[in-house]
Amino acid sequence: MRRVREESSRRRSDAGRPDVKRSHSLDAARHGSDARILHVIIRDRTGRIACQPIGSAIVEADGDASLTTLALRKGLEPLVRFCAYSPRQAEEAKRTLAELGDVDFEERDFEPEWFDALPCIETIDGLLAHRGRRRRFLTEAVRNELDLLRRTLGEAHRCSSRFYLVELEPGALRGVPEHQKSLIEHGRDRRD
Prior knowledge:
alpha+beta; three-stranded antiparallel sheet; disordered C terminus
């Protein structure tokens, strides 16, 4: 959902880590036909992690930050707030920062932040309820993906799980066992 621009900031956060500027748009068109797929990564109370693919329509719809802008206008957290770097994005950002040479960073600066599902569910509900002018980018495909995301996060919330969103390139999960790619399906663990 967000990518690293070849920019950085020398400002430091309270923890002494650099603030790396990231694009706050869901931008799938930036690599031509290399469309990215939005995934939800869920960690349950025992630490078990599951990955649920959502699709590419939300990413494509926010290519110009339309969904982000709509959420902000409605007073909601934008979906990009719940995103983490993909492994590829993190490596590109680290390489860029290393090339700049004057920006200190640590590996943990690129670790994902885990979120409670309720604020994201509120954002999704607000987007799905929108009936105004900016409805043109809320296509049926986007609405279907928002609905799937909401159901997935609803189940995560019921299980007291935490999550983050990440946009991955096609094939990024190659080599990962199928049961680990999508453990959340219709409210059940697929291994059951």
